[in-house]
Amino acid sequence: MKSNDNTFIMSPKVDFCFKELLNDEDVRRGFIAAILGVKADMIQRTELLPTYLRKQHQKDKLGILDIRVVLENGTQIDIEMQVIAYDYWAERSLFYLCKMFSEQIHEGEDYQELKKCIHVGILNFILFDDEEYYSKFHIWEDSRKLLYTDKMEIHIVELPKLKKYQYPETELLRWARFFNAENKEEMQMAVQGDKYMEKAYNRLVNLSADDEKRLEYEERQKAIRDYNHMINSGWRTGHARGYAEGHAEGLAEGHAEGHAEGHAEGLAEGHAEGRIQECIEILQEMGISEEKIQDKLAQKFSLSEKEIEEFMEKYWKRAES
Fold this sequence. Notes:
By secondary structure, the protein is α/β, with parallel strands linked by helices. The protein folds into two domains: 15-209, no CATH class; 213-315, no CATH class. It is built from ten helices and six strands, in the order ααβββαβββααααααα. The protein has helices at 15-22, 25-36, 89-102, 171-180, 184-191, 195-209, 211-237, 272-286, 290-301, 305-315, and strands at residues 46-48, 67-71, 76-82, 117-123, 134-140, 147-158. The protein has a six-stranded mixed β-sheet with strand order 1-2-3-4-6-5, sandwiched between helices. A hairpin with a 6-residue loop joins β5 (134-140) and β6. α7 (211-237) runs antiparallel to α8, α8 (272-286) packs antiparallel against α9 (290-301) and α9 packs across α10 (305-315). It is globular, with a radius of gyration of 21 Å.
């Protein structure tokens, strides 16, 4: 069903919208070309890959990517939009990049088969204390600045800096402005004259006019507000000190210290089960998969597989048949 509200438009920063936009091959080509600094017509084909990375062993951390793409030349790109501040973003992005790189070959296969892997993080928080909104990283020799390999790259786009500083006009800057826009007028100014960005905008307009998609979007927004409320309440009451960290994690010591990844977590002594329940329910509301929630419970609450199974059985809300 289509909505009649012509002023409303979803924010492309919300993961739900971001993934919907990049599911379109033309939109992917346009944005990837801007990241790589090439013309879009040089990218002949992009293919979406499964977002799950393999576990070599049972105890390995399971990698789950936002958008994973392979180019015609075999280059793999992971593109992630991160709305909430994440304390260990460098470690997280490096983990995903290395996991993506290493899983290309199996035992007995030749290292020369390894293709280039790129991690792109579009952040709605400031990671570095300088003015540059865009950063690109390789592996270099420290003193001679000798490139060790070009097979691994990390790209960072810090959206909050766009409203603080002025930058030379580039295609990437226009995409960043589009993602960071707060209304239709700002989006239209950003996309004007670029057919790939205009297609992204038109898809977003159609998405925003769909009542079912709008409901899903508003549920995500509500989950983010709930998360922020939990963190702010923790500061006010002194029962928890929140740190924004990806999609929802938490660890509290004694009376009060918590980490929250994405949507919300925390663990306070004497209230552990209630905190775990809250974590499961909020992450599920946010649309996080059952497997990823299990992974986070194991990582941050130091729970055994049996304990995780018990908590998930108790608090995971399954769809009625």
